[in-house]
TrEMBL record, chain A:
Transmembrane segments: none annotated. It comes from the Bacteria. It comes from Cryobacterium glaciale. This is Xanthine dehydrogenase family protein subunit M. GO terms for molecular function: FAD binding; oxidoreductase activity. Keywords: FAD, Flavoprotein, Oxidoreductase. Residues 2-178 form the FAD-binding PCMH-type domain.
UniProtKB/TrEMBL annotation, chain B:
Its cofactor is Mo-molybdopterin cytosine dinucleotide. Residues 1-31 are annotated as: Disordered. Keywords: Molybdenum, Oxidoreductase. Transmembrane segments: none annotated. This is Carbon-monoxide dehydrogenase large subunit. Residues 35-144 form the Aldehyde oxidase/xanthine dehydrogenase a/b hammerhead domain. SUPFAM superfamilies: CO dehydrogenase molybdoprotein N-domain-like, Molybdenum cofactor-binding domain. The keyword Ligase does not apply. The keyword Iron does not apply.
Length: 295, 797
């Protein structure tokens, strides 16, 4: 048994109560949701909070709601809920693609979208997914709520804009007609951190050309979307040649490190390969959904 | 009350739910395991028990300058902080290893691997003990480490074992087998010779339960009860007596339920000794259970062999000879567990399943600044490395000769009529009939169809590989004339008692870590004396309750202890004959046996069941001269030879050409372990071992950085396979009984772990043939496969 350093523990009863507890216990307090990142780090004594504030009783943050032009996801929504939702599968297949390869059912039953985004692990899948879907994070603190686009929310590896006395409470994803998305990951074993992964979201215009595109990469040192591909793809009809070009741009944009999961050139190769694959799948899914609408 | 009439008379002929004897039946131990009612070392709670924790070295090689335990001792709940200096005063700072070396229990002079034991804290609970570790102040003078085994013998390499008198280098041993001159001569005149460096990287058995102990020393009567995660309770008791000075009759070693061993729980670790010292020092029971990182970083690893292989053959595919030089990384202390005469274990079975004209191997063992160990992970004393070498070399030869690897194997197998077969390195293979097993695996796989599919896929640029491995193991160590561990002969005992009501208890010297002994050994007795297995209790794992024997590893339980159990049951059966004759007022020679009863020849209606005989034995019947009033017996079995199980494995993989990701699509395993006692248990063993093999082939490795930091110190870093990585296993079997084993059985516990890695790697290399890949070392991770596709194969160490 690996034993964490001593800590105190308290269960929050509401969002306001959680915020008050964060305020009261200060800088050395940490919120625990699914606990799949924080608890192992504590057991290895890499994280040593004085206080754990457990927010697993905040059922008010566990919801999925199609609300006009956005999908609203409560921060305490479990991975399993996302994976099993028909709305999610229909609107944002990238989420299902990603959820299917996030760890294993035991982890997915407990892990939450809020925990994933706030942990901001560079190999974490939902951060990339939310970047690609241009999600907005709703953060609440003593001064009220802030709405942060992913680019502002996600500041870098293990770092977000959420202040110590704030809580991520909701993720909002804009729904676009004619769009579809995809995600693919390479891992050494199910449940291992990604060697690399890529996600793409594509919107097709009525004439079949790409009207909007976003590509994101996981675990290869790029904490933003591969915006370079937009100029190449937008306004064009999707073709294999364009995907190849986009893949090349992705491999150039990323900045991976060599580790036990592979050397730099392999990871760049994966950025290229996976970018091509997710664009191919997203475009074909978008085309299918466009033809569904028109027929 | 037995219900013989409801049972088939010959359950061994097929699978039945409730065989009286051999056959498929559910494990007797499962009801407690599936209900979470197993009882492991960490479940043991004794009155007043304290808890220990070990401070471990953060660096791989360093001189110990000072230790200050003041703050730790002052921590609330701490009872004692023990250092190497304290142990020195007791003469316990160093302990003998299973390979005639010594290992530091706690560091006194120098740290020799990262994770080595530096100090031991005993406290009220494990939390206080763990917190106090951080309060121990240690000053180290860091030294350059020896990490790369290839550089261990370089002139000027730091000398790791300066504790050993006169030691000026990192050399441990040189060992050889076979005839060098003959082998060189065959190589010199061979048409074809291929060479390949083949690395079997360091891996770890990673049993689900980590190692631990509860020591309870009674200062009044001087008795020590030691609950331990051990695969060899009797051997541990003897060694503890020799090391500690506590007389052997005052030591009781208890091995309760064990959550997997795989060789990880054969040796005596410093933690066990520290728990005992802690109990002696505090006068209270002390529990020590390591965490996962401690298990991965400090307990017995497996493999770490760098092998230079060479194979010689004629142009038309007759394999003539094999030779290899091996560099063996044994870590900082030579603590491998193997029979004394064999410092490289049974590696010299590397001639495999083939009839060769000559063979020669040399093995050089070296010290490095890494955790000690080497023989573990279901390796059958290094048969794993041997099988991997020969099965890779045969595939490489097949490529060179442009022959189908199945055809090449079939052409070179030892023939049925050649058994018992003396190989060129000193083994006598007891039995074998390889071709039918190979043919069955090919039939189950649809081998020709798979090759056709592969050809079509290659034309489309798809990467599909088919890998074959045909292994021969040597298990069941072993004959006492050849084999001992620290002077203890590798025999096993068994005692059988039939109670007056006909229920039985059989006491065995081997210890189950999941092998299903409580079922298998009951079935062996049942087969011999006709009492249902559920009426036979199997007692194991407690030295006060069981006869002496060397324990469970090297697939030796069934070959050695299983033989002892069969023989003790036959002894009881024979004794029952005399008692039955007295009861029936006839002569023993006038009785005939059918399963469960002795009856009068020619008059089957007149007889006595075992239950009746048991009551008679304990009753008032006048017994013949020399027959005691019981139905008990005991034996100690010294095996005349090892057993040689074998099997044919075929693996089919698909590789994603864009990512290098390997998917094991199919795996066909045909095993021949001789007589099959419980086919369900055998299949379970095979499934587990095949999963191990996929793990080693695709993902498992304990790596170190240049400073000697272990990079595999958690299950986040050391990957083991899950159900997602393995296919539905397709198993089959042939039966070639061992001619010298009482029931013809051979060990099977390690067959699949031994046989499967080469099948997977051969399949991966086969899939990569279009890229000109002839060999790639494990693990075949996506990045390493991709690098191989770029022409950049590289050894993992």
């Amino acid at each position: 048994m690996q034993i964490p350093a001593p800590f105190d523990y308290v269960r929050a009863s509401s969002v306001d109560n959680a915020l008050a507890l964060l305020d009261r216990h200060g800088a050395e307090s940490r919120v625990v949701a699914g606990g799949h990142s924080l608890l192992p780090m504590m057991k290895l004594r890499l994280a040593r909070p004085d206080w754990l504030i457990d927010i697993n009783d905040l059922f008010e943050l566990d919801y999925l709601l199609v609300d006009g032009p956005v999908l609203r996801i409560g921060a305490m929504t479990r991975h399993t809920t996302l994976l099993e939702s028909d709305d999610v599968r229909h609107l944002f297949p990238i989420i299902c693609d990603a959820e299917r390869v996030i760890a294993d059912p035991i982890v997915r039953n407990r892990g939450t979208i809020g925990g994933s985004l706030c942990q901001a692990d560079p190999a974490e899948d939902l951060s990339t997914v939310c970047h690609v879907l241009e999600a907005v994070a709703v953060v609440r603190g003593p001064a009220g709520e802030r709405m942060l686009p992913m680019a502002e929310f996600h500041r870098g590896p293990y770092e977000t804009a959420v202040a110590q006395n704030e809580l991520l409470i909701e993720v909002r994803i804009p729904i676009r007609a004619g769009s579809a998305s995809a995600y693919e990951k390479v891992e050494r074993r199910v449940g291992d951190w990604a060697v690399a992964a890529a996600g793409a979201s594509v919107t097709l215009a009525a004439d079949g050309t790409i009207s909007h595109v976003a590509v994101g990469l996981t675990a290869v040192g790029l904490e933003r979307n591969v915006t370079e591909v937009e100029a190449v793809l937008v306004g064009q009809a999707p073709t294999e040649a364009l995907f190849v070009e986009a893949g090349l741009l992705a491999s150039q944009a990323c900045d991976p490190l060599a580790d036990q999961r592979g050397p730099i050139d392999y990871k760049r190769h994966l950025a290229d390969e996976l970018t091509r694959r997710v664009l191919r799948v997203a475009c074909s899914r978008a085309a299918a959904s466009v033809s569904e609408i028109t027929s | 009350m037995t219900i013989l009439e409801d049972r088939p008379s010959n359950p061994a002929a097929g699978d039945h739910d409730r065989p009286i004897g051999h056959g498929r039946m559910q494990r007797k131990e499962d009801p407690r395991f599936v209900r979470g009612k197993g009882h492991y070392v960490d479940d043991i709670v004794l009155p007043g028990m304290l808890h220990g924790a070990i401070l471990r070295a953060p660096v791989a090689h360093a001189r110990l300058v000072s230790i200050d335990t003041t703050a730790a001792l002052a921590h609330p709940g701490v009872h004692a902080v023990i250092t190497g200096t304290d142990l020195q005063a007791l003469g316990l700072a160093w302990a003998p290893t299973l390979s005639m070396d010594v290992q530091a229990v706690l560091v006194t002079d120098k740290v020799r691997f990262q994770g080595q034991e530096v100090a031991f804290v005993v406290a009220d609970d494990r939390y206080a003990a763990r917190d106090a570790l951080e309060l121990i102040q240690v000053e180290y003078d860091v030294l350059p480490p020896v990490v790369d085994a290839r550089k261990a013998m370089d002139p000027g390499a730091p000398v790791i074992r300066d504790d050993l008198e006169g030691r000026t280098d990192n050399h441990i041993f040189d060992w050889e087998a076979g005839n060098k001159a003959e082998t060189d001569a065959v190589f010199a005149s061979a048409d074809v010779v291929v060479k390949q460096e083949i690395v079997y990287p360091r891996v770890h058995p990673a049993p689900m339960e980590t190692c631990g102990a509860v020591a309870d020393f009674d200062p009044i009567d001087g008795r020590l009860i030691l609950y331990e995660t051990t695969q060899a309770p009797h051997a541990h008791r003897t060694l503890f007596a020799m090391v500690s000075g506590i007389p052997e009759h005052k030591i009781r070693v208890v091995s309760p339920d064990i959550g997997g061993g795989f060789g990880n729980k054969v040796g005596i670790y410093p933690g066990y000794i520290l728990a005992v010292v802690g109990s002696i020092v505090t006068g209270k029971p002390v529990k020590w259970v390591e965490d996962r990182s401690e298990n991965l970083m400090s307990t017995s690893f497996a493999r770490d062999y760098i092998m230079q292989g060479e194979i010689a053959a004629t142009r038309d595919g007759k394999i003539l000879a094999l030779r290899t030089n091996v560099l063996a990384d044994h870590g900082a202390f030579n603590a491998t567990a193997q029979p004394t005469k064999y410092p490289a274990g049974f590696f010299h079975i590397f001639t495999g399943s083939y009839d060769l004209a000559a063979a020669h191997c040399t093995v050089t063992g070296v010290y490095t600044n890494k955790a000690p160990g080497g023989v573990a992970y279901a390796c059958s004393f290094r048969v794993t490395e041997a099988v991997y070498l020969v099965e890779r070399m045969v595939d490489i030869l097949a490529r060179k000769l442009e022959m189908d690897p199945a055809e090449l194997r079939l052409k070179n197998f030892i023939k049925k009529e050649q058994f018992p077969y003396p190989n060129k390195t000193g083994w006598e293979y007891d039995s074998g009939d390889y071709e039918p097993t190979m043919r069955l695996s090919m039939k189950m796989a649809g081998y020709d169809e798979l090759r056709r599919e592969q050809k079509e896929k290659r034309e489309r640029g798809e990467l599909m590989g088919i890998g074959i491995s045909f292994f021969t193991e040597t298990v069941g160590a072993g004959p006492r004339k050849d084999m001992d561990i620290l002077g203890l002969g590798m025999a096993d005992g068994a005692e059988l008692r039939i109670h007056p009501t006909g229920k039985a208890v059989v006491r065995i010297s081997v210890q189950s870590q999941g092998q299903g002994h409580e079922t298998t050994f009951a079935q062996i007795v049942a087969e011999e004396i006709g009492i249902p297995p559920e009426d036979i209790d199997v007692v194991h794992g407690d030295t006060d309750q069981t006869p002496f024997g060397l324990g469970t590893y090297g697939s030796r339980s069934t070959p050695v202890s299983g033989a002892a159990v069969a023989l003790v049951a036959r002894k009881v059966r024979e004794k029952a004959r005399f008692i039955a004759a007295a009861m029936l007022e006839t002569r023993p020679e006038d009785l005939e046996w059918e399963k469960g009863r002795w009856f009068v020849k020619g008059d089957p209606s007149v007889g006595k069941t075992m239950a009746e005989i048991a009551m008679g034995a304990h009753g008032t019947v006048a017994l013949p001269e020399g027959i005691d009033g019981n139905l008990d017996a005991e034996v100690t079995y010294d095996p005349p030879n090892l057993t040689f199980p074998f099997g044919a494995y075929i693996c089919v993989v698909d590789i994603d050409p864009g990512t290098g990701h390997v998917k094991v699509r199919r795996f066909i395993a045909v095993d021949d372990c001789g007589t099959r006692i419980n086919p369900m248990i055998i299949e379970g063993q095979i499934h587990g071992g095949l999963t191990d093999g996929v793990g080693m082939a695709l993902m498992e490795i304990i790596e170190f950085d240049a400073e000697g930091n272990c990079l595999g110190g958690s299950l986040m870093d050391y990957l083991i396979p899950t159900a997602m990585e393995v296919p539905d296993w397709e198993t089959g079997f042939t039966v070639t009984p061992s001619p010298h084993h009482p029931i013809g059985a051979k060990g099977v516990g390690e067959s699949a772990t031994v046989g499967s890695p080469p099948a997977v790697v051969n399949a991966v290399v086969d899939a990569l043939a279009p890229f000109g890949v002839v060999h790639m070392d494990m693990p075949c991770t996506p990045s390493r496969v991709w690098e191989a596709m770029q022409g950049r194969t590289r050894p993992p160490v």
